[in-house]
């Protein structure tokens, strides 16, 4: 995963801070930042994505999963 640019853009547009996401998930802001930027092989777990999407009322497919398929 190369980070979550689309989701980061959503957070900025809505004025949602990374700390709010960290608090929601019970992790520190630094870890959320590493995940959002695709650093050190970090990624959200499926249950964390589900929790974020439910909290923000957004689609996981739109912000977290790349649906492009090579043929």
Textual characterization of the structure:
Residues 13-63 form the HTH cro/C1-type domain. This protein has 71 residues and is an all-alpha fold. It has one domain (5-63): lambda repressor-like DNA-binding domains (434 Repressor (Amino-terminal Domain)). Helices cover 58% and strands 0% of the residues. α2 packs across α3. It is globular. The protein starts with a helix and ends in an 8-residue tail after the last helix.
What percentage of amino acids are in beta strands? under 5%
Give average pLDDT, whole number: 89
**Cα gyration radius (Å):** 12 Å
Instruction: Please give the CATH architecture.
Output: Orthogonal Bundle
Report the principal-axis shape: globular
Largest β sheet strand count, sense and barrel closure: none
Counted by DSSP, the helix tally is 5
Supply the CATH superfamily name: lambda repressor-like DNA-binding domains
CATH class reads: Mainly Alpha
Low-confidence stretches: none
Encode the helix/strand succession as letters.
HHHHH
Task: Give the domain tally.
Answer: 1
| Percent of residues in helices | 55-70%
From the 3D structure, determine the CATH topology.
434 Repressor (Amino-terminal Domain)
Structural class, by secondary structure, is: mainly alpha
**How many strands?**
0
Alpha-carbon distance between the two ends: 20 Å
Short recap of the structure:
The protein is an all-alpha fold and about 70 residues long. Helices cover about 60% and strands about 0% of the residues. It contains five helices and no strands.
């Amino acid at each position: 995963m190369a980070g979550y640019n689309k989701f980061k853009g959503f957070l900025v547009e809505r004025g949602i801070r990374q700390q709010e996401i960290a608090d929601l998930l019970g992790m520190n802001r630094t870890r959320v930042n590493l995940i959002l930027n695709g650093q050190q092989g970090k990624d959200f777990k499926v249950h964390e994505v589900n929790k974020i999407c439910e909290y923000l009322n957004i689609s996981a497919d739109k912000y977290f999963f790349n649906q492009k398929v090579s043929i």
